[in-house]
Each structure stands twice: as structure tokens, then as C-alpha cells.
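Q: Got a minute? One more chain.
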Amino acid sequence: MLLAEALRSWRFVVQSVYDPGSGLRSRTGDQYYPLLQDRGLSAVEAGQIFSAFGISLIFGRLVVGYLIDRLWAPGVASIALLMPAVACLIFALSSGNTALYVLATMLVGIGAGAEFDIAAFLIAKYFGMRDYGRLFGIHLGLITAGAAAAPLLFGALYSMTGDYSGLLIFRHGLLCYRPLMLLLLGSYPVFGRQTPPPRLLFK
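A: Always. Here it is, folded:
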């Protein structure tokens, strides 16, 4: 698709609508330590648990990348991006259980590792390569702007409530809607291929 045509497409809107809840994925480091310390852990313990984030980030990219080459990508994306929503519930409802905190951290890492890679793949699949660079640039710009605004939003909400539990439940809802919206994308469109001009041996 051409840029103007793609920008009018509902599929582009579905893919590019940013959920502020994914600030927990893309800006986890900013809020992770105060979140765990609010649960009674020391800074050292929080750092040890956070090490699971990097491992799961790499794992998420490798596994999700393998699966979207072989399965319907929005379905794979929905499962991967719902994992941080489950993590929010674990953080909100568990109290002092280190094993559950490690599990929640790994779920966030898988979602964070998959997010931008899936976005690049879906833009190519649903809009083609003709204006891919500009379309992905616009998409990434919207996501980055949202990621920059998310810590300010959640910081303000925390200041109002003084507690992470309500904030985590709120994030859980935000983290659920975008993955489920991806299921509306349907099957991949089939784009026609332009026939290249004949190759001339002599001019």
C-alpha cells in the first residue's frame, strides 16, 4: 500500500493505537525497583529478580520470531502480549513470594521482547513493502511517544493513590485490550507483484 492509503486503513489504526499499559513492558526498569521494594524486597533482591527480565527478553524474541514465521502472527502476538497482563495480576495479588515475582518478571520480559519485533512483521504483512520504511517509522514514533508519556501518567496515578495494587489492576486492563484487538486483523492480504521490465543485454 501507499502511505496515504495505509494511514486510512483501520488495520493501521489497530496496530498503532498505543496502550499506556505497555509502559510496564517498554519502561520496566524505571519502575521495577520501587515496585518490588514496595512489596518489601531490598534493592539487592529486586536486582536479582530483575536479572530474569533480560533472559526472558532474549527468549521471547527468539521463540516469538520462530513462531510468527510459521503461524498466524496476530494470534502469536496476542498470546505473547497478554503475558505482561498476567504479570500485573501476579504483582498486584501476591505478597512476598519471590518465585511468583520471578515468574511475573519473565512474563513481562517475553512481552517486551516480542512487542517491537511483532510490530515490524505485522506492518510488512498487512501493508507490504512499498512504503514500509515510512509506515514503520510512523508506527514506531507513536509507540515511542506513548512509552515516554506512560511513566508520567503512572507516576501521577501512584501519587494520587499511594499504592501500586490499584495501579497494577488498571494496567492489567490496559494491557489486555491491544492484544485482543490484534485478533481483528484477519488473514494476510495478498498483494500483486509488479512484473519487472525485461532485462536488456545490449543498449
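A: The radius of gyration is 20 Å.
Q: Perfect, thanks.
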